[in-house]
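Thread: Newbie trying to understand structure tokens

Hi all, I'm a second-year student working on a class project, and my supervisor (Dr. K.) asked me to get a predicted structure for one chain before our next meeting. I've only ever worked with sequences, so writing a 3D structure as a token string is new to me. If someone could post the tokens and maybe explain what I'm looking at, I'd be very grateful. Here's the chain:
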Amino acid sequence: MECISRKAAKAAGLKYYFTGKPCKRGGHIDKRFVSSFSCMTCSREKAKEDWDNSDPEWHRKRTAYNQSRWHHDHQFRARMQAYKSHPDELRKQRERNREWKKANRASCTDRQSKRNALLREVFVEDVSLAEIFERDNGRCKICGFELSMDTKWPHPRTPTRDHVVPLSKGGKHERSNLQLACAECNIRKGDRCA
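---
Reply by user tm_fold:
Sure, no problem. This is what the structure looks like when written as tokens:
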């Protein structure tokens, strides 16, 4: 493996770099991620540890959801098989999807929030970010900062919806459990109750 510094790898647009020195966490000599400095072996161990310590019932539901989608959604199955036979088309489609997601971030977060809530079998109400923004007068309910709908991710003051009682703690995806929060406060709050 060729040695390359993180700075050089970042400048070249690479995801990994290799110094030949052992990592600080586990002493592994392996490639490291440019984004997080962590070595690949430590990342795999942490992912396995997180998986082992997570809720097995949630994994069962998620697996059942994905399997039912594969067996009952014929269009989905046909699309996946077509992509396998045409890898260039798959790459182009992924790039188009990435661009669409950047342009339609609010729609993507709405869908992801609903999917997470459905996987946890909680009540889901159709609530847009614009509604929450208007109801809370454009102010972050955590820090009080005045937000703007024109601010886009990854700016720390991007308006986001925050669950007062997180879905992971039994909260519902409904107006009364949602509040406006800037991205910075929402990320810092994590899955703690307000």
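A couple of things are worth pointing out once you decode it. The mean pLDDT is 83. The two ends are 48 Å apart (CA to CA). Feel free to ask follow-ups in this thread.
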